Amino acid sequence: MEGFILRAVLAAVGISIIAGSLGCFVIWKRMSYFSDSISHSALLGVSLGLVSGLGLHFGLIVVGITFAILIVILQQRQFLSNDAILGIFSHISLSLGIVILALVGGANTDYFSLLFGDILSISNQDIIWIYAILILVGTLLITFWQRLLLLTLNEDLGVASGLNKILYQILFMLMIALTVSVSVQIVGVLLITSLLIIPPAIARVFSNSPAQMVLFSILTSIIAVIIGLSGSMYYDIATGPTIVIALGALFITSQVLPTQSRV
């Protein structure tokens, strides 16, 4: 039991750091619909991982990366609006995932845990995977922090400075795809977006700078996930919804405080 709790806490903290930091860019870029769409595509990634026998993480990464690149390509064509493109891909991938799971999923497939998370499914290999993604995403964010921030807060100035907008857009979307790939087992396919949106929304209330907002977002995410995990284990209920309820309580609390954001 002690090993099980330790794995759950380690996984929760690692995912909170990744999602809390990237979520700030999602808020600044107003890309919540994109993160929601790519989380829906995770179900297709799960089903392909099961079909191929290569595992959930492999299927999630392949589908997430493909999804992100296709969206960027279609956005450049400007044939459809961004929300239309995201809506089309979101519903197609979600439907394909459901159909494939229905065809190949056996009696041992736990659909509820895929949709809403299951801390019991976390293994030592998953912990290694989560922290490998954490190191990769953290390194990319630190390396390209100024450029990503400039393109996020003032895209015209960033392009005028010689930055490749499409390249950094793809890079950011790939990081979101990696985040989704490691978050499924904690919060499930349907609730991943909450980890990317709610902590930064809370942190924004108390922050005076982008770096401060990232730090507060990570701390908020860790607190909420630990509270959610504790409630999930104590009451024997789904992990994902419990974490989202904790985030919701923190968000409501932040909104009634008299502090005003400057970010």
- Give the tally of structural domains: 1
Total E-strand runs: 0
Low-confidence spans: none
**SS element count, helices:** 13
Estimate the mean pLDDT confidence. Answer: 85
Please tell me about this protein's structure.
- It comes from endosymbiont of Bathymodiolus septemdierum str. Myojin knoll.
- This protein is mostly helical.
- It has one domain: ABC transporter involved in vitamin B12 uptake, BtuC, CATH 1.10.3470.10.
- Helix content is 82%, strand content 0%.
- It contains 13 helices and no strands.
- The protein is globular, with a radius of gyration of 18 Å.
- The termini are far apart.
Task: List strands and helices in order, with pairings.
Layout: H1 2-29, H2 32-40, H3 42-52, H4 56-77, H5 82-104, H6 111-116, H7 124-143, H8 145-153, H9 155-160, H10 165-187, H11 192-206, H12 210-235, H13 239-256
Key structural traits:
High-affinity zinc uptake system membrane protein ZnuB; 263 residues; single chain; mainly alpha
Provide a brief overview of the structure.
By secondary structure, the chain is mostly helical. The protein has helices at 2-29, 32-40, 42-52, 56-77, 82-104, 111-116, 124-143, 145-153, 155-160, 165-187, 192-206, 210-235, 239-256. The radius of gyration is 18 Å and the shape is globular.
